[in-house]
Amino acid sequence: MDSNALKRTWSIATAQGDEVPLYFYSHLFAHHPELREMFPVAMGAQRDKLFAALGHIISRVDRIDEVNGFLGQLGRDHRRFAVVPEHYSMLGSSFLATLQRFVGAEWTEQVAADWAEAYGLIAKVMVIAAEDASDETPPWWDGEVTAVERRSLDVAVLQVRLPHDFAYAPGQSAAVEVPALPRTWRYLSPANAQRADGTVEFHVQLVPGGLFSTAAVRKTNPGDVLRIGAPVGDQLKAEAGRDLLLVAGGTGLAPLSAVLDSAATQWRENGSGPRVDLFHGARVPWNLYDQPRLTALAAHEPWFSFHPVVSDDATFPGLKGKVGSAAATHASSSGRLALVCGSGPMVAHAVSELVGSGVPRGDIRYEDYTGIEDNSSPTGEEQLEGTR
């Protein structure tokens, strides 16, 4: 299998714009109209998500050993759409037909064979993981909303009680569907470590006109029942014996809050644990929506330091500028394991700044959602509407 040929031909196809995913979905629904009901009524700007996800993952099949675990998580998670093995074959046929049409002269017999082999490998990992999980866990869990709190101008917190068999690790995310917007899922991260009573906090950024955030914040009430998919993600986690540098933008704070919560539990139960410096960035001070709680925690826990950072308000009395720059130039960046979460541009900038300041690339972790989170659902739900 020639991975360079896969990447080259994928670039040729994606360079041709929106016509490519439009053809893909047209081909898929024309040949398998029964699949249409698995997707939202309004596909809108998200219709390229699934196509982009397939290409992103498959064209990197040479790294399958690195992403094998994450593919398995996605396979388990996609049971919430009632995806069965034959659906993978349907999607694969339309995907290859689309590539053949748009790659042109580069679509040789060998390239076609390589794409088919790569797709088969990816689909096999996901199908086997889904089959194994079906023996032990449901395709989704029901969670009861106990409170909806508007914590800032544009961030709300959903308090949700989940069944005790819903297990996740701090830093992971899970797809969430709210009753006011059926068949549209959004990945959110529990903002706390697992609790004995099964309650979690989800942070939702309200985006004007955003379908999911509007439904989650303004149309969700205590007593409503959410659907929660299987947790995914394997990068935002602590390592034994390593102190932590946490760098968050916006509601990217949520998964890192869960990591922080887990560290607090270690200190409380063992009297020892990682030292943690948390940098939280926002454009304006009033969007530092968890500042009171984090400031209070830092005031009485010597192992924890909190650094709020504001980029667009020159009157802010604390750190100003981009959160990645503030973290990279702080003394706490040396020797720590750095976990970064936020929008794509925020993560890219923070990683660049940390590397530039001398933090080894191997000490920086973030979830690579390029083509994964944005597209990790057959429905291609909107992921740009908020963050975690």
From TrEMBL:
<keyword id="KW-0349">Heme</keyword>
<dbReference type="InterPro" id="IPR050415">
    <property type="entry name" value="MRET"/>
</dbReference>
<dbReference type="InterPro" id="IPR000971">
    <property type="entry name" value="Globin"/>
</dbReference>
<dbReference type="InterPro" id="IPR008333">
    <property type="entry name" value="Cbr1-like_FAD-bd_dom"/>
</dbReference>
<keyword id="KW-0408">Iron</keyword>
<keyword id="KW-0001">2Fe-2S</keyword>
<keyword id="KW-0561">Oxygen transport</keyword>
<dbReference type="InterPro" id="IPR039261">
    <property type="entry name" value="FNR_nucleotide-bd"/>
</dbReference>
<dbReference type="Pfam" id="PF00175">
    <property type="entry name" value="NAD_binding_1"/>
</dbReference>
<dbReference type="Pfam" id="PF00970">
    <property type="entry name" value="FAD_binding_6"/>
</dbReference>
<dbReference type="InterPro" id="IPR001433">
    <property type="entry name" value="OxRdtase_FAD/NAD-bd"/>
</dbReference>
<feature type="domain" description="Globin">
    <location>
        <begin position="1"/>
        <end position="131"/>
    </location>
</feature>
<dbReference type="InterPro" id="IPR012292">
    <property type="entry name" value="Globin/Proto"/>
</dbReference>
<comment type="similarity">
    <text>Belongs to the globin family.</text>
</comment>
<keyword id="KW-0520">NAD</keyword>
<feature type="domain" description="FAD-binding FR-type">
    <location>
        <begin position="138"/>
        <end position="238"/>
    </location>
</feature>
<feature type="region of interest" description="Disordered">
    <location>
        <begin position="369"/>
        <end position="388"/>
    </location>
</feature>
<dbReference type="InterPro" id="IPR017927">
    <property type="entry name" value="FAD-bd_FR_type"/>
</dbReference>
<dbReference type="InterPro" id="IPR009050">
    <property type="entry name" value="Globin-like_sf"/>
</dbReference>
<keyword id="KW-0411">Iron-sulfur</keyword>
<protein>
    <recommendedName>
        <fullName>nitric oxide dioxygenase</fullName>
        <ecNumber>1.14.12.17</ecNumber>
    </recommendedName>
</protein>
<dbReference type="InterPro" id="IPR017938">
    <property type="entry name" value="Riboflavin_synthase-like_b-brl"/>
</dbReference>
<dbReference type="Pfam" id="PF00042">
    <property type="entry name" value="Globin"/>
</dbReference>
<comment type="similarity">
    <text>In the C-terminal section; belongs to the flavoprotein pyridine nucleotide cytochrome reductase family.</text>
</comment>
<keyword id="KW-0813">Transport</keyword>
<keyword id="KW-0521">NADP</keyword>
<keyword id="KW-0479">Metal-binding</keyword>
